[in-house]
Amino acid sequence: SIGYAAGVGCPDQAAAAECLRALPVNELRTPVWFYGIGDDKLGGPVTGTATLPADPVTAFGEGKAARVPVMIGTTHDEWTLFVA
Q1: What's the Cα-to-Cα distance from 72 to each of 2, 36, 51, 69, 78, rounded to whole Å?
Q2: pLDDT per residue over 33-80, tens digit each?
């Protein structure tokens, strides 16, 4: 996203792709932050595009989300993928 590119030092939209390609890999390891719970930030979808124009949490809060059944869940050991 343009916001992510700007956050890692590539604010020019016209040159963002070229700028991102030139960055060292370690500069790109910071995840895109979606929202926070207390002091913990959670990664999530990139918004502001035709596919996902608005932040989902904001859209739900403003009543702009489609009124369809939604199933939400987690897995017990989902984050153990990241344990070394």
Answers
A1: 28, 18, 20, 10, 14
A2: 655 555 556 666 778 888 888 888 788 889 988 888 888 777 777 767
pTM over 0.70: no
The DSSP-derived string for the chain is -HHHHHHTT---GGGHHHHHHHS-GGGG-SPPEEEEETTEEEE----SSSSS-S-HHHHHHTT-S--S-------TTGGGGG--
Q: Domain-by-domain residue ranges, the chain? A: 2-82
**In angstroms, rounded to a whole number, what is the distance separating the alpha carbons of residues 44 and 67?**
21
